[in-house]
Amino acid sequence: MLAGCDFPLVRDRFWSTGEDTAPGTSCSSAPSSPLKSTAIGRPGLRVLDLGTLPRVESPPTELRARKDKLAYFERQCSPVGHGLFVGAECVARNRESLREAGITHVINCVGFLYPAYFSPELEYRTLYLQDTPAEDITCILYDVFDFIQAAVGHGADPAGRVLLHCSQGVSRSVSLTIAYLMWREGRPYEEVFASVKAARGIANPNIGFVCQLLQWQKRRTTGPGAERLYRLAPQSPAAPQYLVPRSAKILGSAGLDPRGSFVLHTSTALFLWLGKACPEGFAAAATTFAAQLERYEAAPAPALLQRDGKESEEFWTALKAMLSSSTGEDGPEASGSWRAAAVCEIPAYDKDYELFARSQTARSSTADDSDASPRSARKTPRDERSEEDPSPNERQRKHARGTPPTVPRDAASADGGAQSSANGAVAAAASPRRHASRLPPVPPLDMTRRGGPSVNSRSRVPRINLSPVATVVSDD
After folding, report:
1. CATH code of the region 228-363
2. Residue 339, H or E segment
3. Is 278 a catalytic residue?
4. Which GO molecular function annotations are given, in alphabetical order (predicted)?
5. pLDDT for 430-451, tens place per residue?
6. By the 8 A CB rule, do 213 and 206 touch?
7. Backbone phi, then psi, for 265, in 5-degree steps?
8. pLDDT in tens, 365-379
9. What percent of the chain has pLDDT over 90?
10. Distances (CA, A) of 473 to 241, 404, 439, 446
11. DSSP code, position 52
C-alpha cells in the first residue's frame, strides 16, 4: 500500500486508500462516486468517470440564442397588421412563401443588392437605404405611405397585402412598418414598436431610425411650430432620377438655388418655389411632395406657386422669418438687394444637380439608341464601302493577278505631293519586274504526265505529279 497523500484536498477528491477497489480485483457494483480507482501503474489514483455524472442542460448563451432566433425568423413572413408583412430577403425570393401569404405588393428596401424577383407579376417599390444611423428615412416615408395605401385601400379590410423586406427584416423594413402604423392608427412609437416586436421577435431598428421616427411624431402632433424649408434632391447615387425632399438651410443670406425646386412650409401657408433653371423632374417632385404635406401633415392648402423673380411679399416675409429663427437674430429687410442675394447657386448642392444632369444625359442617349433603326436595316462596313475603295482582299487579288489597284477617289483629288506619291506607287505596282520581285506569281501545278496519269494497281487512285514547272521572269 502506498503512503497516504499529504495534501488534504487532493486526498479527499482523487486519492484512494485501497478500500474501494484493490488492485487486481473487480467490483461488480456501481461506483458510489464519479471518481474510481485505476489499477494501471498508480493504484492510489482515481480517475473521473464522465458516464456517472448527471446530464444537466445549461441554458444557451445570449449570442447562441440570438443566432437561433435570426435563423428562425429568416424564413418567416411575419404579419404585423392591416395587410402588412415583414420578412427577410430569402422570403422575398421564395414564390411559394409569397403565394401562401397572399402578397400582391413588395417594398424592397435594399435595391442595390436585391432585384425585383417577380416583376411584373407582383408590383414593386424599390428603395435604396443603408442600415446606418445617418441614413435619412423620413424623406421616403410619404412615398411608402402612398404605395401601401394604393395596395391595401382605405377600407377596414385590406384589398391587397404588402411585404416590406430588407436583408434580415430587422431594422429598415421594420422602421417603415412602424412609421406607417403610427400614422394610420394614431398611436405613439412605443406602442407600435411593442406590437411589431411581439409579431416579429427580431425587430430592432437602429438608434438613428428611432430618433427620426420620434422627431417625425413630434412634428406631426405639435404642428410645424417654425418655418421649414425643403429642397428636392436625388435619394441615392444608385437612383439619381428618384427625387426626395431633404431639409434645406439658409447658408448666410443664400437659401434658394435657381437650378432646383424648394418647398417652404409654415403654419399659415405652403409655398412651392421653382428656379429659372429648374428641370421638369424637380418641379414634378416638388408638386408631389407639397400634396403629401397636405395629406399627411395637414399643411395649409393649396400650395402657392412661386417662380424665380416673381415671388410674392408673403413668401419673402416667411423666408425672412425662417432666417431669423435659424440665426437667432433679426432678419434683413426684405429689400431688393437681399432678395437677389438669397437666390444664387449654392456650392453645397452642386453634387446633387450634377448627378441628376448626368443621369438625364445617360437616359437620353439610351433612348436614342433604342429609337435607332433595326439591326437588319443598318449598313454593315462592307455595304458602306464605296466601289472605288475595294476591300483589302480585293486589292491582294489584283496584286496577285498583276493588275494595278484602283486609286481611291480621295487620293486622286489630293494635292501635288500626295498625287505624285500615289502615281509612283501605281507605276511601281504596274511594273512586271518589280511586281515579280515583290510578289512572285504562284506557279501552276502539273496535273498530268506523259502517257496519262499513273494508277496504283492496288488502290486504283491516280497519282498526280506535284512537281512545279520552272517559271522564268524576263526583263522585257
Report:
1. 3.40.20.10
2. helix 336-342
3. no
4. phosphatase activity
5. 444 444 445 555 555 555 444 4
6. no
7. -110, 120
8. 665 555 544 433 444
9. 47
10. 74, 18, 12, 19
11. G
Residue 270 pairs with which residues in a beta bridge? Answer: 265
Residue at grid coordinates 458516464: 51
* Residue with the three cell numbers 467490483: 27
C-alpha cell at 211: 430618433
Active-site choice (77, 109, 139, 166): 166
pLDDT in tens, 181-210: 999 999 999 999 999 999 999 999 999 999
Is pLDDT above 60 for 386? no
CA dist., res. 30 & res. 23, Å (int) = 17
Which cell numbers in the block locate residue 72? 428562425
Which pLDDT belongs to residue 65?
83
In the CATH scheme, what architecture does the domain 64-222 have? Alpha-Beta Complex (3.90)
The angle that helices 172-185 and 141-152 make with each other, rounded to 10 degrees, is 70
**DSSP characters for 85-151?**
EEE-HHHHT-HHHHHHHT--EEEESBTTT---TTTTTSEEEE-B--SSTT---GGGHHHHHHHHHHH
d(CA 287, CA 292): 9
Residue among 241, 278, 246 at smallest CA distance from 261: 278
Q: Among all chains, which residue has been given the C-alpha cell 497516504?
A: 4
For 293, residues 6+ apart whose C-beta sits below 8 A from its C-beta are 263, 265, 270, 299
The domain segmentation of the chain, as residue ranges, is 8-48, 64-222, 228-363
Written as nine digits, the cell of 32 is: 458510489
